[in-house]
């Protein structure tokens, strides 16, 4: 059904729908110049989920929620441009666009002319229609005629503008994620290449990386800019690829490259901003100052980049960018070393522990260093078994709250609090609030999207929104192991096996020694009846990473004699022989074995393992509700009791 039909039908309905649209417009008007007021906040104000609000607006108006917000802002912008003598940049900021370029592009797309042409055009009444108007039909919801006039208006549209109807109908069929993609492609995007260390001291590599990272943090505070994660950019440290090649691989419009040199008590930073697709330098500068002035240099570079990219900075954003993270250069260097080893934790044994020590030392040097507190909270949170030692759970919360008390703009601290509430405290309302706040503070925080995506899937069962958020994370951090892993799992659960295989192939490239990619492939093959290929995948992994608790030859014999169930049973029995009892298994092993027991139909043992995990408050248990391995347990009273105690609720 086309948008025109939806409008006509919607005009005949009284009450909730019309009242909803008016309430939504009032809420946007109240937050007009707040660029962070988006779909999540709007949905909250009317007590709906994002998906519910999206469905209602699609049904009522034929447009997505993000389009609804954007078009209202643009309508107000048109009114201001007609009534006042202001520039496009000034209006962009007043109506909630942080990028004047994106504002002008959106305005042109909607009205058919640029903001600068408004004064030169004949004023057209918002309630009138002309056959040659460049304004698309989808903006008609902004007018508020009476029901009789509204029906007449729709009839006129249907009679005089059939081609417009076709365009709107096609647009209404585009899904919500496509709308997000359009916004991202229209937005300014940038990636920071690893800064080159020109100092003789190898230790200065951490300092050079730190200069880049703080600039990244500053740019993250600017709404309307897509910024690729520094972890994904590490692969380009020694690259010989051209700017257009890099831009094509990571889908950005601009690159920032720089060199950093420490000498005596001074620092020299040479920075270049490149239009990557044209391979043209659009700005460069050299900063040669005292070392203690490095934070001012970073702020100046960040503001200059915003200026060159025609991004409008609000006074609050300027204050945040100019904030100095620490006055102690040594604390700053220790923090950067911690970040370096934390980013390596998935690839090198013991690196997570090393990062914790450096973050602690940074805090000892500067007890007011907010970023160090947030980083230490995150390091503890994702340090595996350490979360159950030395009251680390309470410590994570204390560290995150301390970071927020020192600097309430730190998104990472809210991710830590949200993940703690979700995985350990099982306070799902708190978890959702923290994740959403983290994304509002930093829309480029890939980790916030990753863990909120997992929350949406495993707690709310919202597979569509989970996919939307994990795709966003992958656009920001294409080489994130966790993001690619979640994407592969979602595709598997959806039955999109080819796409899942594409993701596991990426996972092996990122880290070929991690079992997850191989295990998902086993599941993918088995689900399609290719059991031989599934076992071959498992054997391939164990040949690469020899197991200490089972025999590959015995595993093959188990498969030959008893099929898949024989392999799974052998795997579980090998675990038990190694540790003696289920209660002695590690957190991941306990949950993984419970999954396997659920899969092979040993309900009693699966429930026993899950109840042990529950008593431990295992962080892996948070995914239990919609885990397909437990689908046969969903009617079991003991299973439902666990869900209830975890505040996960039952099944509709």
Automatic annotation (TrEMBL):
<dbReference type="Pfam" id="PF12833">
    <property type="entry name" value="HTH_18"/>
</dbReference>
<keyword id="KW-0804">Transcription</keyword>
<dbReference type="GO" id="GO:0043565">
    <property type="term" value="F:sequence-specific DNA binding"/>
</dbReference>
<keyword id="KW-0238">DNA-binding</keyword>
<feature type="domain" description="HTH araC/xylS-type">
    <location>
        <begin position="22"/>
        <end position="121"/>
    </location>
</feature>
<keyword id="KW-0805">Transcription regulation</keyword>
<dbReference type="InterPro" id="IPR018060">
    <property type="entry name" value="HTH_AraC"/>
</dbReference>
<dbReference type="InterPro" id="IPR020449">
    <property type="entry name" value="Tscrpt_reg_AraC-type_HTH"/>
</dbReference>
<dbReference type="InterPro" id="IPR009057">
    <property type="entry name" value="Homeodomain-like_sf"/>
</dbReference>
<dbReference type="InterPro" id="IPR019734">
    <property type="entry name" value="TPR_rpt"/>
</dbReference>
<protein>
    <recommendedName>
        <fullName>HTH araC/xylS-type domain-containing protein</fullName>
    </recommendedName>
</protein>
<keyword id="KW-0472">Membrane</keyword>
<feature type="transmembrane region" description="Helical">
    <location>
        <begin position="150"/>
        <end position="168"/>
    </location>
</feature>
<keyword id="KW-0812">Transmembrane</keyword>
<keyword id="KW-1133">Transmembrane helix</keyword>
<dbReference type="GO" id="GO:0003700">
    <property type="term" value="F:DNA-binding transcription factor activity"/>
</dbReference>
<dbReference type="InterPro" id="IPR011990">
    <property type="entry name" value="TPR-like_helical_dom_sf"/>
</dbReference>
């Amino acid at each position: 059904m086309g948008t025109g039909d939806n409008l006509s039908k919607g005009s005949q309905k009284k009450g909730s729908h019309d009242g909803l649209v008016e309430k939504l417009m009032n809420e946007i008007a109240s937050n007009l110049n707040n660029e962070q007021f988006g779909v999540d906040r709007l949905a909250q104000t009317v007590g709906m989920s994002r998906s519910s609000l999206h469905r209602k607006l699609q049904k009522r108006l034929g447009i997505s929620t993000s389009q609804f917000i954007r078009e209202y802002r643009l309508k107000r912008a048109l009114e201001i441009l007609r009534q006042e003598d202001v520039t496009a940049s000034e209006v962009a900021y007043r109506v909630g666009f942080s990028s004047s370029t994106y504002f002008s592009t959106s305005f042109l797309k909607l009205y058919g002319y640029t903001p600068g042409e408004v004064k030169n055009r004949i004023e057209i009444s918002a309630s009138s229609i002309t056959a040659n108007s460049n304004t698309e039909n989808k903006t008609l919801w902004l007018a508020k005629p009476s029901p009789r006039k509204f029906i007449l208006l729709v009839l006129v549209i249907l009679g005089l503008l059939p081609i417009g109807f076709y365009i709107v109908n096609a647009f209404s069929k585009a899904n919500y994620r496509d709308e997000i993609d359009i916004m991202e492609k229209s937005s300014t995007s940038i990636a920071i290449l690893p800064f080159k260390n020109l100092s003789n001291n190898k230790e200065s590599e951490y300092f050079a990386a730190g200069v880049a990272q703080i600039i990244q943090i500053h740019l993250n505070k600017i709404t309307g800019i897509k910024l690729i994660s520094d972890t994904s950019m590490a692969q380009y440290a020694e690259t010989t690829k051209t700017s257009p090649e890099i831009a094509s691989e990571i889908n950005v419009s601009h690159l920032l490259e720089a060199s950093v040199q420490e000498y005596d008590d001074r620092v020299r930073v040479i920075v270049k901003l490149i239009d990557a697709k044209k391979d043209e330098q659009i700005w460069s500068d050299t900063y040669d100052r005292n070392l203690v002035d490095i934070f001012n240099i970073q702020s100046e570079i960040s503001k200059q980049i915003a200026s060159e990219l025609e991004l409008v900075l609000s006074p609050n954003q300027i204050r945040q960018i100019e904030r100095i993270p620490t006055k102690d250069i040594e604390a700053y260097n220790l923090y950067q070393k911690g970040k370096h080893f934390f980013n390596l934790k998935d690839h090198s044994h013991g690196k997570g522990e090393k990062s914790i020590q450096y973050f602690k030392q940074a805090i000892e040097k500067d007890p007011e260093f907010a970023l160090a507190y947030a980083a230490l909270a995150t390091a503890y949170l994702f340090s595996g078994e350490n979360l159950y030692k030395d009251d680390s759970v309470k410590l994570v919360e204390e560290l995150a709250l301390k970071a927020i008390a020192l600097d309430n703009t730190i998104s990472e601290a809210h991710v830590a609090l949200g993940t703690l509430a979700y995985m350990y405290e099982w306070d799902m309302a708190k978890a959702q609030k923290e994740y959403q706040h983290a994304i509002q503070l930093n829309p480029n925080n890939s980790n916030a999207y990753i863990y909120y995506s997992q929350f949406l899937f495993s707690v709310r069962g919202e597979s569509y929104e989970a996919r939307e958020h994990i795709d966003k994370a992958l656009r920001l951090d294409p080489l994130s192991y966790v993001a690619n892993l979640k994407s592969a799992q979602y595709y598997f659960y959806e039955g999109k096996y080819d796409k899942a295989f594409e993701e596991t192939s990426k996972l092996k490239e990122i880290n070929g020694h991690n079992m997850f990619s191989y295990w998902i492939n086993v599941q993918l093959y088995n689900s399609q009846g290719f059991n031989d290929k599934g076992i071959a995948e498992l054997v391939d992994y164990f040949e690469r990473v020899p197991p200490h608790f089972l025999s590959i030859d015995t595993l093959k014999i188990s498969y030959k004699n008893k099929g898949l169930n024989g392999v799974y049973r052998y795997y579980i029995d090998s675990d038990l022989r190694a540790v003696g009892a289920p209660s002695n298994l590690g957190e991941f092993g306990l949950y993984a074995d419970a999954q396997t027991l659920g899969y092979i139909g040993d309900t009693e043992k699966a429930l026993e393992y899950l109840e042990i995990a529950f008593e431990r408050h295992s962080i892996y248990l948070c995914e239990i509700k919609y885990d397909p391995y437990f689908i046969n347990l969903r009617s079991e009273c003991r299973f439902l009791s666990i869900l209830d105690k975890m505040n996960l609720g039952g099944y509709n």
